[in-house]
């Protein structure tokens, strides 16, 4: 059964916190672009937006000590599906709140 562990890891993969941070930035910036909000938010391009997110993600590297990869995947998927006509704050994926939530 030891041979299954590497195979399972290859199939499932690990959704690391670094990958999540990059995907979260991309999903947010893509939403701003898709909904024609980049300029309104002060960004010249998606790359400009991604640069801002990159600066934010290095500010507090210990901010997410209880990382939940499943919640992270759900969060990004939910952001990718978020429509432009929807109230972003009201419809922000609930899973995003669980990515770094501490267990009670």
Question: What's the short version?
Answer:
This protein is mostly helical and 104 residues long.
What does this protein structure show overall?
This protein has 104 residues and is mostly helical. It is 54% helix and 0% strand. The protein has one domain. It has 5 helices and no strands. The protein is globular and about 35 Å long. The model is unreliable at 1-11 (pLDDT under 50).
List the helices and strands and how they pair.
Blueprint lengths: L3 H9 L4 H18 L11 H12 L11 H13 L6 H4 L13
Helix pairs in contact: 2-3, 2-4
The total count of helices amounts to: 5
Indicate how many domains the architecture comprises.
1
What global shape is seen? globular
End-to-end distance, in Å?
34 Å
Order of helices and strands, N to C? HHHHH
Helix content: 40-55%
Mean pLDDT: 82
Please summarize the sheet with the most strands.
Answer: none
Query: What are the low-pLDDT stretches, counting only 5+ consecutive residues below 50?
Result: 1-11
Strand content: under 5%
Radius of gyration: 16 Å
Helix vs. strand class: mainly alpha
- Number of distinct beta strands: 0
Short key terms for the protein model shown above:
globular; 54% helix
């Amino acid at each position: 059964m030891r041979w299954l562990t590497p195979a399972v890891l290859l199939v499932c993969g690990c959704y690391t916190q670094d990958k999540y941070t990059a995907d979260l930035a991309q999903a947010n910036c893509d939403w701003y672009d898709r909904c024609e909000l980049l300029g309104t938010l002060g960004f010249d391009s998606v790359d400009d937006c991604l640069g801002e997110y990159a600066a934010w993600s290095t500010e507090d590297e210990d901010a997410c000590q209880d990382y939940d990869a499943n919640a992270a995947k759900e969060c990004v998927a939910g952001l990718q599906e978020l429509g432009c006509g929807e109230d972003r704050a009201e419809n922000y994926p609930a899973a995003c709140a669980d990515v770094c939530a501490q267990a009670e």
